[in-house]
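Consider the following assembly input.
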Amino acid sequence: MTLFLIPTTLAPDTAEAVLPAQIKQVVSQTDYYFVENIRTARRFISELKLGKTIDDLHFYELDKNTTVQQVKGYFQGIPPDAAIGVMSEAGCPGVADPGAIAVQMAHQLGIRVVPLVGPSSILLGLMASGFSGQSFVFHGYLPIEKAARHKMLKVLEKNAQSFQTQIFMETPFRNNAFLDDILQICHPDLKLCIACNVSASDEFIQTKSIAQWRKAKPDLHKKPTMFLMSQ
Amino acid sequence: MTLFLIPTTLAPDTAEAVLPAQIKQVVSQTDYYFVENIRTARRFISELKLGKTIDDLHFYELDKNTTVQQVKGYFQGIPPDAAIGVMSEAGCPGVADPGAIAVQMAHQLGIRVVPLVGPSSILLGLMASGFSGQSFVFHGYLPIEKAARHKMLKVLEKNAQSFQTQIFMETPFRNNAFLDDILQICHPDLKLCIACNVSASDEFIQTKSIAQWRKAKPDLHKKPTMFLMSQ
């Protein structure tokens, strides 16, 4: 048994450009899938146009409530020589999604785990920021509550000053308010990279100082965006 | 002018499997390159078999001593409508290599920066570890001096206990001694993922407790390895 971690696209109609050949090859040979969302996964496999009959495939949904025992049960119900794919809603599975629980269980059961190459907005944002990749931290979502969020932004600013790149995000429909917060709280000289719609045709990635961003704010409403901060 | 960040392979003979089509497409249209090592870059482009005459290409070497002024000079010497590629020795440019200085300058000069998808041992190790990708930190190389290294390992262990995945590495010829240090210093219950020769045919990625690793140590001598730690 092998557990393949299969990245999906971040933006529509980009599969041919951004997915390496190994993904098509693995999907064409895999009939069992652990996925964050079954509908998205079925659509993704269809779009690869591999001639697979989607209704013959076996999907097991993983969400934040899935227990270790359930995942163990899934593995035990699959033929021992099968290949299993793990797919998240978008991007690389196991990074900020429930796929990690399947990977943990695979290691415990001695099952081989093979990660495949694909798009990650965290990594693409980091590459394109121009900030240090020698030392960086991904925080996921910052607190929603105002006082806690402001305190956290001050902590990130302090970390950024010792050349550790700070990476974080917000739910897309709150991006504009979040950007306002950052521009209000952070020091004018601090550098902020906004990596928006990464890998899409309208990708927007720019690094400027807080002072420069204050003069011309981009509209990030409902657009998937990664924020990066450095000295 | 556009600055493309072009990932290269991590392991020999893997280009066809791990590189997406957009890389071949961009390289076929790009004649100017900022690279970490000219010989490696020429060989990589040859291996893509795009029919390009390598001697017609323009290479500018970036190393840790390259200054901002030099990079600015490079940009100024290139035709304004040209595409420029940035390539590191292996994997994704701008992450733990001198490519970031070119990206910084591009942002300052208002040049569009486009990151392409490709292999990263940090990201592939994180995906395959089964550890939290909601919150993680990459530390690069730990201190070489024994007391400082031990102190740092205790700090990482403490961070790992609050479910922040810790990622770090060592120069490959010192990997075995480094693993001995980790196994000696860290708590038996702590989990360690060893991601070795990632994307190669002899890829080895396993997550076990420190206590389990103590019973059977893999030989990591001269093998590129990423270490990941979590509770």
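The longest strand of chain A covers residues 136-141. Ask yourself how this observation constrains the way the partners meet.
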